[in-house]
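ARCHIVE CARD
Drawer: 12
Card no.: 0347
Subject: one protein chain, sequence and derived structure
Cross-reference: see card 0346
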Amino acid sequence: FSKGLTMPQLSLDTIRLLLADMILTRVADAAGVNYDALVRFANGDTQKPSFELVAGVAKYLEMRAALTQGE
């Protein structure tokens, strides 16, 4: 895959659910994705988000979960 990204293992609906209570400007910055595209995805306005968007956000969520679990 491009840019060393791996296939995300979280479903799109799960990612949207996890994003629901997050500050999307911070998520976009930390995940290295476009803020406007992230907002459209989180709101369900984008049915086919780019691979880079989903992979970037999934990686961010997985790293965040690992930090909160003390890994």
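Annotation on reverse: The first helix runs from residue 12 to 19. The chain has a mean pLDDT of 88.
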